[in-house]
Write a structure and sequence with these properties.
The protein is an alpha/beta fold and 664 residues long. The chain folds into four domains: 12-110, Immunoglobulin-like (Sandwich); 125-269, no CATH class; 284-358, Helicase, Ruva Protein, domain 3 (Orthogonal Bundle), CATH 1.10.8; 374-531, P-loop containing nucleotide triphosphate hydrolases (Rossmann fold, 3-Layer(aba) Sandwich), CATH 3.40.50. The protein has a six-stranded mixed β-sheet with strand order 12-14-15-16-13-17, with helices on both faces. Strands 3-2-5-6 form a four-stranded antiparallel β-sheet, with no helix packed on it. Strands 9-8-10-11 form a four-stranded mixed β-sheet. It is elongated. 34% of the residues are buried.
Length: 664
């Protein structure tokens, strides 16, 4: 076939019209934004898969990333690409099928080459391993179940296929023609033979390294009884490789690259021949280096930072905590390539979206709101005073004396969430609120938990809020029928929160109406040793304060007749913020129906109070209040009527209420 390609950079006006035997395309960088990738060597091959097929034609992409092939016969065509300065080939570009009637089009996404000649360079993991960590290895192999076996360089691939041809002659197979098996269990015996062969070769480069990507698809975390035969065979293969004296003596190493260790089978993690190395999310210094690197300058077209961002490099580095470098790059590309500017609002919303996407909607990320302080919280004077002390420590940068966690117990509707939001904004810290992350699938719960904890560790300083903490944290013993998941979740949380190295970077706040159901281990000093309980209004002055603050927030004027009614009629009731808000909303509703809009009168409030039936059992509320009293860590946080109460009597009263409710 007489396939031709015009020279790179030929102006479109000098090219003949595209015919049915033409494929026109462009190369761009896979890191987002549609940035053209010039100078890419493009090989055209006939068939479904670029790997191992003979070359039909080649060209180099022009300055705009464009390329073209002419004179093609109908059928399926595929591509292989190589970036400048690299010897590795990328075959994963899909196919173009020509029908003999119309030309074809293709867009090839390529990895940006590793920049040279600068202080710090950034590269994908495979490029880093081949060019930095293992540049002298005789063979560096990559495997995943989608692509099968690939190689760091074309030379390595060529030497492997030379050996494979000899293997085929001995074993009466044809792998050098068909390619090595893609299924791991069929490939493994062949790889072991190759490992031993390669290790015996003489030369300046020695040793073999195999990197297995997505190993959780091969040996997932699962119960032994539920594992398939293929999974069991793969597990045994990896365990035998790990303990093999031959492979160790011949300098053969195997890397399993997974997002979290909880995704892999426990037998691999517990094997004494297997080491674990965690790659944490980048810290502020690493983010600053990345933002000043050639990667980011390329995204911005080498424009100065001031031309595309309202924030300097230091601010950008500080405000992108909790994001991986790839996500930072994508965030900048979305903004810069759309012609916008990276301002505080764009960065905050983009970061919130990316973190919530990474954690699969299991967390809510909130930045501090300007002007929102603890002054907006009614009553709870002792709790506000203690939280203001913590906020002062945070603002002063004295994190070494900060509590690791604060337990905020209180009955339903007492205002725990609102208090914590106001406290976080007064501190000036972002809030990460953890939602329900448990899954029915084996290993999924631990994987999601690990992803959340990884984000929390990288986000600091941050306030981590856990609502319904007694349910989220679980307990040491676990639950019947969950295969120990609850126990492992509890252990991971306990280890993380108890890590004193994170003091000052994370402040955990656990909210619950039943602190008695939290494991004792969580309530010890060094975890949630500070307990600041919240209680309903204790007297007429606090009830009036609740009405005044909530009415003001809703824009409802509270005249003297209403204040008098609140003091005399409602002053002795143990009302909470949610109770008062419900009363005011219902009173507003009556005013609107009477065509008075926000002119709320005493009769409106009186009717709302008289018609309301509280669906919450009084016994449950009393139980929750006693639980908060017993959990309190400082007498100063208790109302006067509880401050001098006998603890033994309180415990007996709590036990009696719990027994009456069947232990709930």
């Amino acid at each position: 076939e007489a396939v031709t390609s015009p020279p790179a950079g030929t102006p479109p006006s000098d090219l003949p019209p595209a015919g049915p035997g033409t494929i026109e395309g462009r190369t761009d960088y896979a890191d987002g934004g549609g940035v053209p990738a010039p100078g890419i060597l493009v090989l055209l091959k006939r068939g479904e898969e670029g790997r191992g097929l003979p070359e039909a034609a080649r060209t180099t992409s022009g300055a705009d990333g464009g390329f073209r092939f002419d004179g093609l016969a109908p059928g399926t065509w595929c591509f292989s690409t190589q970036t400048p300065g690299s010897t590795a080939w990328d075959h994963d570009h899909g196919t173009v099928t020509l029908d003999g009637l119309a030309p074809g089009a293709a867009t090839l996404h390529v990895e940006r080459p590793v920049p040279e000649g600068e202080g710090v360079a950034f590269a994908p993991l495979k490029a880093f391993l081949s060019r930095r960590l293992f540049p002298e290895r005789a063979f560096l192999l990559f495997y995943d179940i989608a692509e099968g076996l690939t190689f760091a360089t074309a030379d390595m691939r060529g030497r492997f296929f030379e050996w494979l041809e000899i293997y085929d002659r001995v074993e009466k197979t044809d792998f050098h023609v068909q390619g090595p098996p893609r299924e791991f269990n069929r490939l493994a015996p062949l790889l072991r033979r190759f490992f031993l062969y390669a290790a015996e070769q003489k030369g300046p480069r020695r040793g073999v390294t195999l990197l297995v990507d997505f190993p959780e698809k091969i040996v997932p975390a699962s119960e032994e009884s539920g594992a398939s035969l293929d999974e069991r065979m793969a597990l045994v293969t990896l365990l035998k490789w790990a303990s093999s004296q031959d492979l160790r003596r011949h300098d053969v190493g195997v890397f399993l690259v997974a997002e979290t260790v909880g995704e892999l089978h426990a037998d691999i993690l517990q094997n004494p021949h297997v080491a674990q190395a965690a790659i944490e999310l980048p810290d502020q210094e690493e983010r600053r280096e990345f933002l000043g690197s050639a990667w980011v300058r390329g995204l911005a077209g080498d424009r100065p930072v001031a031309e595309w961002s309202d924030l300097g490099l230091e601010d950008l580095a500080a405000r992108t905590s909790g994001l991986s470098l790839v996500r930072i790059q994508n965030l900048l590309a979305e903004c810069v390539r759309s012609g916008g500017r990276m301002g505080q609002e764009a960065l905050s919303s983009g970061k919130r979206r990316l973190i919530e996407e990474f954690c699969q909607g299991l967390v809510r990320f909130k930045d501090p709101r300007p002007g929102v302080t603890l002054d907006r919280v009614a009553t709870h004077a002792a709790a506000k005073a203690r939280l203001r002390e913590l906020a002062r420590i945070i603002r002063a940068g004295k994190g070494h004396v900060l509590e690791r966690g604060v337990l905020v117990p209180g009955r339903i509707g007492v205002g725990k969430s609102f208090l914590v939001d106001c406290f976080a904004s007064e501190c000036g810290l972002p809030v990460l609120e953890i939602g329900e992350f448990r899954s029915k699938w084996v290993g999924e719960t631990e994987r999601l938990q690990a992803r959340i904890l990884l984000t929390v560790r990288a986000l600091g300083p941050v306030v981590v809020v856990v609502d319904e903490a007694d349910a989220v944290f679980g307990n040491r013993g676990g639950s019947d029928g969950d295969s120990g998941v609850s126990g492992r979740v509890f252990a991971a949380f306990a280890a993380h929160i108890g890590d004193s190295k994170l003091r000052g970077r994370e402040l955990w706040i656990a909210m619950t109406s039943r602190p008695d159901m939290m494991a004792v281990d969580m309530k010890r000093q060094g975890r949630f040793g500070l307990c600041v309980p919240l209680f309903p209004a204790q007297d007429a002055a606090e009830v009036e304060e609740l009405f005044a603050v909530i009415a003001k927030s809703r824009g409802v004027p509270l005249g003297d007749p209403l204040k008098e009614y609140v003091r005399k009629v409602l002053g002795e009731r143990p009302l909470t913020g949610s109770d008062v808000e419900a009363i005011i909303v219902r009173a507003e509703e009556r005013a609107v129906l009477a065509d008075r809009d926000r002119d709320v009168r005493v009769e409106d409030v009186e009717a709302a109070v008289d018609s309301f039936i509280d669906p919450l059992p009084p016994g449950l509320l009393a139980l929750q209040e006693l639980a908060a009293v017993l959990a309190c860590s400082d007498r100063r946080f208790l109302p006067a009527r509880w401050r001098e109460a006998d603890r033994g009597e309180l415990t007996a009263a709590f036990d009696a209420l719990a027994a009456r409710r069947g232990g709930r």
